[in-house]
Write a structure and sequence with these properties.
alpha/beta; single chain; 10-stranded parallel sheet; 16% helix; flat; UDP N-Acetylglucosamine Acyltransferase, domain 1
């Protein structure tokens, strides 16, 4: 596709400077540039590339003041660069050629209900009592268990498994090999030190507009529901245990793990490889830095924590500043001890 810088500025309600007729053919990275590329500058550390790598057009913050002439033919100023990029990537995305069709190699139970314009790929399995909404896209080798509900417009990529009685909302995206509704990790010890499996008879409920990354697992509840609420985005390789509840519009990076019955609030931001013990509550708008171990509830909204065990972010930075000086402090203490011993003072 081809579009001019002027047209891009109109789409974004941005302010155009430079060549209005510069032809844009594709989005690109600022550190690569190239003819026809539309690049963007959102992080100041990439600013040097704006002067050295030519492109057709460059998106910049509205208040950007260049230190020297930019290499792009056109400059487009916008209020929210990341938001503008998200909008443009959707514009440039030509979409999937997976047309609404049902493969003859899919196994669909007679009692399963399929809405309008549903796509079902090869070797997908839809069990009895499942209800599939309008416009759902089911890629090859997806498994949908008994009595599962899938909301309209949801996309299930290859290898997704949704086990019995679980529900997925509308406009969700589940990436390859996501598992929804596997048994929770529940075992009861006996006097002999052996473990008996506790039946996991609950389910998982995923609300509307949730995206779940590849190879993420969300266990069914022991009783009741494991819940991921509306608008939450979960990265790859995340583990959500039984009876966990994750609030609305929360973002969770890869390799994070939530132990059973943890309750995570709305609008939280959780870095990669964070860990949460069970039966705690995390307040709305909390920020948990990468590799933090959250061992106690976070009670105050808008908290930021870091470390393992996690402590307030400011406290962690101050403690770490001291930690880096420990070798030097240790040497000073040793020197002082030697001086005291040499002086004969007690």
């Amino acid at each position: 596709m081809q579009i001019t810088a002027k047209e891009i500025a109109q789409i974004l309600d941005g302010i155009l400077e430079g060549d209005a007729e510069a032809i844009i053919t594709h989005p690109g990275k600022i550190e690569e540039g190239g003819a026809g590329a539309l690049t963007f500058l959102a992080n100041p550390k990439y600013e040097p590339f704006a002067y050295t790598h030519a492109s057709a057009a460059l998106l910049v913050p509205a208040d950007f003041v260049p230190a020297q002439p930019v290499a792009a033919r056109a400059l487009i100023r916008v209020g929210d660069v990341y938001g503008a990029v998200a909008k443009l990537l959707s514009y440039f995305d030509e979409g999937s050629d997976f047309k609404p069709s049902i493969s003859g190699q899919a196994a669909i139970a007679e009692t399963a209900q399929l809405g309008k314009e549903v796509s079902v790929g090869e070797f997908a399995v839809i069990e009895k009592g499942a209800r599939i909404g309008d416009g759902v896209c089911i890629y090859p080798q997806v498994y949908i268990g008994e009595n599962v509900e899938i909301g309209a417009g949801t996309i299930l990529y290859p290898g997704v498994r949704i086990l019995k009685n679980c529900s997925i909302g509308a406009r969700c995206i589940l990436h390859a090999n996501v598992v929804i509704g596997s048994d929770g990790f529940g075992f009861a010890p006996n006097a002999a030190g052996q473990f008996s499996k506790i039946p996991q008879i609950g389910r998982v409920r995923i609300e509307d507009d949730v995206e779940i990354g590849a190879n993420t697992t969300i266990d069914r509840a022991t009783m009741g529901e494991t819940i991921v609420r509306r608008g939450t985005k979960i990265d790859n390789l995340v583990m959500v245990a039984h009876n966990v509840e994750i609030g609305e519009d929360t973002v969770i990076a890869a390799q994070t793990g939530f132990a059973g019955s943890a309750k995570i609030g709305n609008h939280c931001r959780i870095g990669g490889q964070a860990g949460f013990v069970g039966h705690i509550k995390v307040a709305d708008h909390s920020q948990v830095q990468a590799q933090s171990g959250v061992a106690a509830s976070i009670k105050q909204e808008h908290s930021a924590v870091y470390g393992s065990p996690a402590i307030p972010y400011g406290d962690y930075l101050r403690a770490y500043a001291v930690f880096k000086k420990l070798p030097e402090l240790y040497k000073k203490i040793n020197d002082l001890e030697k001086q005291l011993k040499g002086s004969g003072k007690p």
